[in-house]
Amino acid sequence: MLKPRQHSFFLFGPRGTGKTTFLRSFFEDKKPLWIDLLDPQTEDRYARNPNTLAQEVEGSRGSLEWVVIDEVQKLPKLLDLVHFLIEKKEIKFALTGSSARKLKRGSANLLAGRAFVYHMFPLTAQELGSSFELDSALRWGSLPAVARMGTGPERSEFLRAYALTYLKEEIWGEHIIRRLDPFRRFLEIAAQMNGEIVNYANIAADVGADLKTVQSHYVILEDTLVGVLLEPFHLSLRKRQRNNPKFYFFDTGVKSALERSLDQPLTPGSYAYGKAFEHFVVLEVFRRNSYLRKDFRFSYLRTKDDAEIDLVVERPGLSPAFVEIKSAERVDERSTRTLERFRRDFGRAEAFCLSRDPGVKKIGSVRALPWERGLGELGL
User: Fold this and answer.
1) Fold of the CATH domain 278-378
2) pTM of the model
3) Model confidence over 128-151: pLDDT tens digits?
4) CA count, 13 A, side-chain hemisphere, 6
């Protein structure tokens, strides 16, 4: 994921995705100055006197090459000093964050071009390797701590605690919202609507809030890295922005914890299983695109008569790909009918049906592939 250690960088990702563990391994042969802003005493020390950072760098007498600042969003004013030290002292920084909200509004723009930006996610199927189990990933997600746990009750307790930690530390503790209970209700409804086109007005009515408040809540979810928006596809970017997006939480297990469905098993062939499989594949697509630095752009397509394509993948230098995601163990013409219809309207597009069917098939102009092989064929 990261290039050789020659340039400062941000590493963003939700809590618990392994940023700190990764960096400790990444710098195992180095001795960076390590500043953990999750530690209350450390945060207080640097908040009272940000120039402590410059003093510690000066005190190293030239032996210091790297500084790691963990959860830098807790003290965004440090970035002004980071900027100075990169420019004048040639110190390199590794800056982690589980929220981009404060940084967007602070001075992070001063580091544009001076710090690369990377993201870390829950484990992909490739990272899990031989220990990957699809049904487990659909129900429990793939946060590293969850992947190490052996039983369902353990995983349930961890995910419930994780959801509470998000509310307590990322939202309430950072004073992002004024009232916690309406936001808590919003989270549950947003999780229930995961993967659906966001209807702000309906959600506002259910939560008991106004439209702008619900829209701002979705911005909070994006800024705190717990979800991604999938915009509607249109050849005109201006028109693309007019329609409502879909929203996907960053992890299937966390989504289940927020909607209080962890105790409900997923049965293959059920509607819930199909939605979980779609959610999982969409997340794999986003994660692999980020890690491979592909710059693919993703959207969904729905017509006025409710015909829908789950994913439209715009690939620089390649033809666009229309992708249907099916949880079926056997796909046939019924699974590809909508793809065929859209394929005729976009002559250059490739059409893929990704499913649990182990067979490789050509159904009309549609390539039906096992989901993991299909991701590879897409360039991921």
Assistant:
1) Trna Endonuclease; Chain: A, domain 1 (3.40.1350)
2) 0.92
3) 999 999 999 999 999 999 999 988
4) 2
